[in-house]
Design brief:
Mean pLDDT: 85
Number of domains: 1
Number of helices: 3
Structural class: alpha/beta
Distance between the termini: 45 Å
Low-confidence stretches: 3-9, 12-30
Number of strands: 6
Order of helices and strands: HEEHEEEEH
Radius of gyration: 23 Å
CATH architecture: 2-Layer Sandwich
Shape: elongated
């Protein structure tokens, strides 16, 4: 019994000090936007993909602006800003995801959108928080794309803007 106390008591004391506030503040707010960052500029994302959906550029650009507006305190501006997002839509593809048995038809299709994003944090003199990266997301669907394309695009844009926002501000 004495041996158990001699082994576990020191560990318990260390754990108590560790968890009782050793000067570390944890935050799960979903973001780490620098305190001095006040403004953001989201430039228009042109669609240069071989296959084009007419409203994708506008919808994606507005979706990214809305994501930043709803999840941060940053003011959106049209000129010089503390943070800048720019880029192009490089991929818009519909491919078969699963084939029907005894048939050459696709039972399930996949709509994939790829966006190349350049994020610049003008307040970071080291440039370590800035990045240039491609982001890809997809949604699977059955049937023809025509009746579902607007909803599929909206769902993919939501996923893409979440990934981009997290990469820029949440440091995941």
């Amino acid at each position: 019994m004495q041996r158990i106390f001699s082994v576990f008591l020191p560990m318990a004391v260390v754990l108590c000090f560790f968890f009782s506030g050793c000067g570390v503040n944890y935050s799960f707010s979903g973001g780490s936007i620098p305190e001095n960052m006040k403004t953001v500029n989201v430039q228009f994302f042109e669609n240069i993909a071989p296959m084009v959906y007419a409203t994708l550029s506008q919808n994606f650009t507005e979706g990214l602006k809305e994501r930043i507006r709803s999840q941060s305190r940053l003011s959106q501006v049209n000129g010089e800003a503390d943070a800048m997002f720019e880029g192009v839509i490089t991929g818009y593809d519909i491919t078969p995801a699963a084939v029907e048995a005894n048939s050459d038809r696709a039972a399930l299709n996949r709509l994939t959108i790829t966006v190349k994003v350049k994020y610049t944090n003008r307040l970071d003199e080291t440039g370590e928080s800035s990045f240039e990266q491609s982001f890809t997301q997809f949604q699977e669907f059955s049937g023809t794309v025509t009746a579902q394309e607007a909803n599929l695009n909206a769902a993919i844009i939501k996923l893409l803007t979440e990934d981009i926002y997290n990469r820029a501000f949440a440091n995941w």
